[in-house]
Amino acid sequence: MLEHELKNAVSSVKMTPAKKEVLAQALRQQTEQPRRSRIPRGFALAAACVLVFTLGAVGWRLAAKKQPTGLPTSVPHNETDAAVPSNGASAADTDAALQTDAAKQNEDPVSGEVDSANSPNTVAETTAPGNDAPTEIGNLWNIRDPKELENIHWRTLVRGEPGTDTGKYPCPLPGTHAYSIGLGDALREYAGRDDVNYYVRIEVFPPDGLPDAPQAQQAYYETLRERLYETLSIDDVGFEISVFENHNTGEAVVTFGAMAYHAEVFDAFPDLPDVGLFLSLYDEITEIK
Amino acid sequence: MKNGSDRPAEEIERLVSTYTDTLYRICLTRLRSPADAEDAVQETFMKLLKRQPRFQSPEHEKAWLIRVALNVCTDLVRARQRHAESPLSDLAEAAAQSDAPDVMEALLELPEAYRTVLTLHYVEGYTTGEIAKIIGKSASAVKMRLQKGRELLRESES
User: Fold this and answer.
1) Hey, where are the domains in chain A?
2) Does B10 lie at the interface with A, CB-CB under 8 angstroms?
3) Is A1 within 8 Å of chain B by CB?
4) pLDDT tens per residue across span A247-283
5) Distance from CA of A211 to the nearest CA of B (A)
6) Which residue pairs from A273-276 have beta carbons closer than 8 angstroms and sit at least 24 positions apart in sequence?
7) Is A133's Cβ below 8 Å from some Cβ in B?
8) Pick the CATH number of B1-92 from 1.10.1740, 2.120.10, 3.30.420, 1.10.3470
């Protein structure tokens, strides 16, 4: 009875015809906005070649001038563009989530065009080297095996390093506890783009050892893993999460919107009495447009 | 199945006539604000028109739109939180759009997780498995939400 009432109540909600017409008109206007004039492909190719040659020559000369001083000042990385809407993570996610297994084998819902270019990485180093193929965003959200993440190019935004100060949040020394990480602060400082996927990796470890220390106390790690899972499994639409069976590691691929929405949850995470923890935050080099 | 990118006007007419009410209901349930729901629907259609994804079937297209709409809603909610001066949801106005405003209001007063799942299941007729794919949760989680949502609705009725 209740369900029937609910169905009737919600089904009766409709947009008025006048508003539908306004909506259609707005969509028409937005889609009919003048596009860039098309340049003949051959001409564009020739111009691109000339440009690349010119830039290359200039760069070569600059490099030759700088060479005596020593090391290069930046680390190059590849950037790729994929044709996905601005809320692309969501859209791509949707495609991936909605396809059947059989369809996944036959269809490439998010085939991104690759526009490779070397550019200086002013943020940090390039991580997860390996496959140079463009990331298939559509399948990103189906990842359940951490090894699959290795095929994606992630750029480090924030990283805590055991015993060092190189990251925004250095790892606590062995024996310290309740290391406070504010993912919300990290987001505000380093993230902030809706059109980029972010990859969060949180590792917890007992105070008597670093993350790669021998995992002797299986039960203890199991407790940590459960706590990590509870923390990362945010119960809300749009927040896709993958928590792997690495005992002390939680990993998530999320959008900025989803993370910002739940940042307060992450901020509250370190309330573990005797656990060290550090966070890595990456953005995906493959930007979604 | 491919969208009619060569005929955008006809494509827009088709989208608006076919999916507007469904998306509007879902967005209204999620956002509890008619104005925000209208914006979310428009944004969702724009994403489809810009991207022009290929769909295997009309059901696939509909589910895609619903998922994108829900994510657009999430972004809107976040924007609200970021800009405190933005108007909050107008629950009464949203409920008044229904023929049974009391029931609608009871639904809108539920936590977000239950509202969406209840709407998708009881109004749009999706199974728990289909909802799980749409919202990216496990089927068991969807069942739990449905159960809890029903309980909360009954409590609000009594």
Assistant:
1) 84-111+127-288
2) no
3) no
4) 455 556 665 555 555 555 454 444 444 444 555 666 6
5) 29
6) A273/A177, A273/A178, A274/A177, A274/A178, A274/A206, A274/A207, A275/A177, A275/A178, A275/A204, A275/A205, A275/A206, A275/A207, A275/A224, A276/A171, A276/A172, A276/A174, A276/A176, A276/A177, A276/A179, A276/A204, A276/A205, A276/A206, A276/A207
7) no
8) 1.10.1740
